[in-house]
Amino acid sequence: MYKPIWSKAKKQLKGYICESLKDRIDFHIINYRKAHDQLGRAVITVDKKEVLNMCTITSDIALIRKEWDIRRNQNIEYDVYNQNQNYEIGVQAHNLIKAEGIFAQYDFFDSLEQYFNSSIEKSLTSTDMVVKILSLIDRRIGKRTLEKLNESIKSESDIIKYFYQLRCNAEGLNLSIG
């Protein structure tokens, strides 16, 4: 798991935000020292309001429920000794909850690492929602690229549409994803 020095990573991340959103978007890491793993939440705020909350506890609960749903739907009994099967079901469940927009703090850090180590073109086409969100608010994306993305954004999740619309409005583009 990517565990950067948050102050350094935040500074780098804020450096990528486009000028029109620089003062409106912020990122926060909230750690719970008394939690068993000392993890907490990663939060993206817009105008000081939480827009995306990536809570480890919420994610872990959703992950366990999704694993049991998979087992129930496929009639798979839990076997503590079948580590390969348990791992595969865990990976499948994790991918499903991420597709639903449920992220843990460690997912945010993993996405951050992917974003920092990829080109902006690759980030824009990423299947990771957080990476795509970060790329939509990136200063390296111009108005023409935003216009080209208008049709493809219509099939994306609501949170990606929100950040796309936020960026378009901030840039003065009248693009509707209706």
Description of the structure:
- This protein is mostly helical and 178 residues long.
- 53% of the residues lie in helices and 11% in strands.
- The chain has a three-stranded antiparallel sheet with strand order 1-2-3.
- Helix 2 crosses helix 3.
- The longest helix is centred in the middle third of the chain and has 18 residues.
Short synopsis of the structure:
The chain is mainly alpha-helical and 178 residues long.
Write the layout of secondary structure elements.
Layout: H1 6-16, E1 25-30, E2 41-46, E3 49-55, H2 56-73, H3 83-99, H4 105-116, H5 120-124, H6 129-136, H7 143-153, H8 158-170
Antiparallel strand pairs: 1-2, 2-3
What portion of residues is helical? Answer: 40-55%
Unreliable residue stretches: none
Number of helices: 8
Taken as a percent bin, the fraction of beta residues is 5-15%
Number of strands: 3
Gap from first CA to last CA: 37 Å
Q: Mean pLDDT, as a whole number?
A: 90
- The structural class is mainly alpha
Order of helices and strands: HEEEHHHHHHH
Strand order of the main beta sheet, please?
1-2-3
C-alpha Rg, in Å?
A: 18 Å
Oligomer: single chain
Largest sheet: 3 strands, antiparallel
